[in-house]
UniProtKB/TrEMBL annotation:
Ranges of residues in domain Response regulatory: 4-120
Keyword Secreted: no
Protein name, UniProt field: Response regulator
PANTHER family assigned: CHEMOTAXIS TWO-COMPONENT RESPONSE REGULATOR (PTHR44591:SF25), STRESS RESPONSE REGULATOR PROTEIN 1 (PTHR44591)
Organism whose genome encodes this protein: Caldichromatium japonicum
UniProt superkingdom: Bacteria
SMART domains: REC
Annotated Pfam families: Response_reg
Key word Phosphoprotein present: yes
Residue list for modification 4-aspartylphosphate: 53
GO biological process: phosphorelay signal transduction system
Keywords: Phosphoprotein
Length: 122
């Protein structure tokens, strides 16, 4: 069975690009347009990895990470931040909230897939 990845980004075109790369590698992809939308998708089904932007309306990525860590079903789900941000403070805030990896946009699909392969739950 394919592993499922939740992609959270306020840019529909960016979600599409990430989704195509992941689907091409055999993953199932669920999309969410911001942190609040992402939380509605975490309905108990198995999610093997969450990839989230940092800057989004309604709920930013770092707040989202903290909220996900409060959910028993998703407490240990690996989370990767995929963002244009590269400030050490933001990275540290994300790590403190529970994010496991940080990839800066624009990204190369092989780099994304390599990071996904290292992080994804068995």
């Amino acid at each position: 069975m394919a592993k499922t990845i939740l992609v959270v980004d306020d840019s529909a075109s960016f979600r599409s690009v990430v989704g195509l790369a992941l689907k091409g590698a055999g993953y199932e992809v669920i999309e969410a347009c911001d942190g609040q939308d992402a939380l509605t998708k975490l309905d108990g089904r198995k999610i093997h990895l969450i990839i989230s932007d940092v800057n989004m309306p309604n709920m930013d990525g770092i707040t989202l990470v903290g909220e996900i860590r409060k959910l028993p079903n998703y407490k240990y789900t690996p989370i990767m931040m995929l963002t244009t941000e590269s400030q050490p403070e933001k990275k540290e805030a994300a790590r403190a909230a529970g994010a496991k990896a940080w990839l800066v946009k624009p990204f190369q699909p092989p780099a994304l897939l390599d990071a996904v392969a290292k992080l994804i739950l068995p």
